[in-house]
Amino acid sequence: MNKHVIITGSSKGIGRQLTLLLIKNKFKVYGCSRTNTIYNENFIFKKTDLSHPNKLDELDLPEINTNDQVFLINNAGEIGTIDRIGDKNSNEIINEFNINLVSPTILCNNVIKFYKEKTKNIIIINISSGAALRPIESWGTYCQSKSAIDMLTKMIETENNNIKTYSIYPGVVDTEMQLKIRGAEINKFPLRDKFIEYYKNNELVNPKTIAEKIVYLMKNLPKFQSNMISLREIALE
User: Which of 162, 150, 129, 50 is nearest to 96 (CA)?
Assistant: First the structure.
């Protein structure tokens, strides 16, 4: 049985580390991002801009053999403009929802539609956030979209008995998003200093560790009863 992975945001951060590890573990990986930094015979780059979800129907999904395993990993995300609702402009709001929610929903829809008659081994992994569970001042669209991603996971589970769907909570990870958060204006983001302390105290998780835990999940699906998974609770052997 061949294992295929369609992953968004494959060019940097968690997505890049996850893509490299998947290739190492003999998965066939299809990376969807605006740029590419990976070249390997088991990697196919699909130039994709998630801020334009109306273009996603043009994305060619890989052909598979009957009952091959297909993963969709909605990894790409955007914190957006860090500012309060009432101070953002409409284009910022639209762009942030397009990347964080609309595009992942369309990809889920297209993957299920394309593969449901070809295999019973469809697994969807949505990268969520602790921001889905509580309001964080000036992260309005990010909190809303990640909360909606969790509901998307639950809806797919409800509607499709044969599709495994997971929302993953990575924790506070050392990525470009954290750099942007630390650079926010304190008057717009009162929690900024807390995130600066995370960085100074070496409390940010290495993206490689997150990638290792996600691959562990992918290779050990029967071990997980819940489809809402905090990676902090996974201890690698």
Answer: 50
Q: In terms of Cα–Cα distance, which of 19, 9, 1 is closest to 211?
A: 19
| Residue 197 phi, psi (nearest 5) | -65, -40
Q: Tokens standing for 132?
A: 């889905």
pLDDT tens-digit series, residues 27-51: 999 999 999 989 999 999 999 999 9
Which class is domain 3-174+207-230? alpha beta
70 has a pLDDT exceeding 80: yes
| CB-side neighbour CA atoms (13 Å) of 205 | 16
What's the residue count for the chain?
237
**Structure tokens of 145?**
């979209």
DSSP string across the chain:
--EEEEEESTTSHHHHHHHHHHHHTT-EEEEEESS-----TTEEEEE--TT-GGGGGGPPPPP--TT-EEEEEE----------TTTS-HHHHHHHHIIIIIHHHHHHHHHHHHHTTT-S-EEEEEE--GGGSS--TT-HHHHHHHHHHHHHHHHHHHH-TTEEEEEEE--SB-SHHHHHHHTS-TTT-TTHHHHHHHHHTT-SBPHHHHHHHHHHHHH-GGG---SEEEGGGPPP-
pLDDT in tens, 142-157: 999 999 999 999 999 9
Burial 8-44 (b: 16+ CB within 10 A, else e): bbbbebbbbbbbbbbbeeebbbbbbbeeeebeeeebe
